[in-house]
Amino acid sequence: MSAINRACAPPAQNEFAGASRTLITGAAGFVGGHLTDRLLALGHEVLAVDNLVTGRREHVPPGVRFEEIDLGSSEEEDVIEVIRGFRPAYVVHLAAVHHIP
Ligand SMILES: NC(=O)c1ccc[n+]([C@@H]2O[C@H](COP(=O)([O-])OP(=O)(O)OC[C@H]3O[C@@H](n4cnc5c(N)ncnc54)[C@H](O)[C@@H]3O)[C@@H](O)[C@H]2O)c1
């Protein structure tokens, strides 16, 4: 079962239930926005990362920490610093340009 399917499973059988820190890349996108909502409902603290190339800031719920980072061009150390600062238990990587222009 994928991480997303596990996150969306009913709380009784959900290993993601309970407060934890989760970093979501592509959090301003379609899947990332919904996953952020779901994890917040499960009590997670979420760090949303997105470069807004296709995503929209308003897909990230108010109050969620948001970092506008381009994972394709940012300095590796800058990304590592954000991860170190947040210390996520989980990372869900959804950032992608999957539409053929
Ligand atoms: N939507 C679907 O039905 C579906 C189905 C199967 C798989 N997927 C996969 O799930 C993932 C997310 O899909 P989605 O529909 O939410 O896409 P989306 O385009 O809505 O979201 C992707 C997000 O990634 C961000 N992004 C792109 N490049 C980035 C970069 N370099 N750094 C930081 N952020 C960046 C975009 O701004 C956007 O917000 C993709 O890998 C997609 O292939 C989606």
Summarize this, please?
By secondary structure, the chain is an alpha/beta fold.
Q: Identify the strand order in the major beta sheet.
A: 3-2-1-4
Mean pLDDT: 87
Give the overall form.
Answer: globular
Distinct small molecules bound, one entry per kind: nicotinamide-adenine-dinucleotide
**Content-based structural category:** alpha/beta
Largest sheet: 4 strands, parallel
- SSE string, helices as H and strands as E: HEHEEHE
Number of helices: 3
Q: What is the radius of gyration computed over CA atoms, rounded to a whole number of angstroms?
A: 13 Å
Q: Helical amount among residues, as a percent range?
A: 25-40%
- Per DSSP E runs of 2 or more residues, the count of β-strands stands at 4
Uncertain regions spanning at least 5 consecutive residues: none
What proportion strand?
15-25%
End-to-end Cα distance, whole Å, is 31 Å
Folded structure, characterized:
With 101 residues, the chain is an alpha/beta fold. Helix content is 29%, strand content 19%. The chain is built from three helices and four strands, in the order αβαββαβ. The chain has helices spanning 3-8, 30-41, 76-86; strands at residues 21-25, 45-50, 65-68, 90-93. A four-stranded parallel β-sheet has the order 3-2-1-4, covered by helices on one side. 27% of the residues are buried. The mean pLDDT is 87.
Blueprint of the fold:
Blueprint: H1 3-8, E1 21-25, H2 30-41, E2 45-50, E3 65-68, H3 76-86, E4 90-93
Parallel strand pairs: 1-2, 1-4, 2-3
Sum up the structure in keywords.
101 residues, four-stranded parallel β-sheet, 3 helices, 29% helix, 19% strand, globular, binds nicotinamide-adenine-dinucleotide
